[in-house]
Write a structure and sequence with these properties.
CATH architecture of the largest domain: Orthogonal Bundle
Shape: globular
Low-confidence stretches: 1-8, 310-314
Radius of gyration: 26 Å
Number of domains: 2
Order of helices and strands: EEHEEHHHHHHHHHHHHH
Largest sheet: 2 strands, antiparallel
CATH topology of the largest domain: MetI-like fold
CATH class of the largest domain: Mainly Alpha
Strand order of the largest sheet: 1-2
Number of helices: 14
Strand content: under 5%
């Protein structure tokens, strides 16, 4: 007579006893995350995709217009302006921030007194992120007749305040992003710790100078970390909003020099109540960031090297 198997525990992978109801309990513990993904991520994404093909003003029912919102973008002068400003910001802020973060990481990777204090001090600005208060202070510092303006006048440079000068307002935001270099700096430090000292010692014996050691040892060995930072900072740069909004407002003042893509998207959606157009802009931004990310992964094959196969970039 066959034994009754109801309620009998089954052996799972590795000999672990699997009790009846384990699967249900697992889904129960995952339910907060699953609900969050469905209600806060996938649901809004699907809704915005639908709205991008409609004319919707938040007060009336959406009206289907097909590709009209997408077609209108390419004849929208302000949209084209926002694309140009954002692209220029990404091209300037990302390499400057990464170069500064790597340079400071190299300095803090050496044995010196107070190293822990300096690491904390350089990381500190990243903790407050892109807060409104920081942006207001930064705008005040670079305003007309401000501390920075008075300092530059001592060297014969009169800009009339960076915040109000369309030639310098974007550069001011680049400096703000660079000042908050703590996160990539810490990641660079972790990567530098993994570089074997024996490689530097062998290079010194062969007569390689600091520049040659940096170029031939440090950069190849930390290339995966460099690529990781490059990827994250590029994506984050496309999404800059708070600091630009505080400095330039919804119109990207002065003279549209701070009209970032996210600023214009917010203005069309919540200023003009063109939520369908704003949704289309959001999906174009997602597509653009995806293409840039794919391009970075494609080009990384030639300069990112891993310790398992140092001769083959992946």
């Amino acid at each position: 007579m066959a034994p009754d198997r109801a309620g009998v525990a089954a052996a799972g992978p590795g000999g672990r006893t699997r009790l009846p109801g384990d699967g249900l309990a697992g889904y129960l513990f995952l339910s907060p995350w699953l609900l969050g993904v469905l209600l806060l991520t996938l649901g809004p994404m699907v809704t915005s995709l639908y709205l991008s093909f409609t004319d919707y003003d938040l007060f009336n029912a959406p009206t289907w217009v097909g590709l009209e919102n997408y077609e209108r973008m390419f004849s929208d002068a302000r949209w084209l302006r926002s694309v140009g400003v954002t692209a220029l910001y990404v091209a300037l802020a990302v390499p400057v921030k990464l170069a500064a973060a790597l340079g400071i990481a190299l300095l803090l990777n050496t044995e010196r007194a107070g190293r822990g204090f300096y690491r904390a001090a350089f990381y500190g600005p990243s903790l407050i992120g892109g807060s409104v208060g920081v942006a207001i202070v930064w705008k005040t510092m670079f305003g007309d007749d401000s501390v920075v303006d008075q300092l530059l006048r001592r060297f014969g440079v009169d800009t009339g305040g960076w915040a109000g000068n369309p030639d310098f307002s974007l550069l001011m935001l680049v400096l703000l992003a660079t000042w908050q270099l703590g996160a990539p700096m810490v990641i660079f430090l972790a990567g530098l710790k993994q570089v074997p000292r024996e490689l530097y010692e062998a290079a010194e014996v062969d007569g390689a100078g600091r520049a040659r050691r940096f170029r031939s040892i440090t950069l190849p060995m930390i290339s995966p970390v460099l690529f990781f930072n490059l990827l994250l900072e590029t994506i984050n740069a496309f999404q800059v909003f708070t600091s630009a909004y505080v400095v330039g407002g919804p119109n990207g003042q002065p003279a549209g020099s701070t009209l970032f893509y996210t600023i214009y998207l917010f203005d069309r959606g919540f200023g003009d109540y063109r939520m369908g157009y704003a949704s289309a802009m959001a999906w174009v931004l997602l597509l653009g960031v995806g293409l840039v990310t794919a391009f970075l992964f494609r080009t990384a094959r030639g300069w990112v090297f891993y310790s398992g196969d140092p001769g083959d970039g992946r």
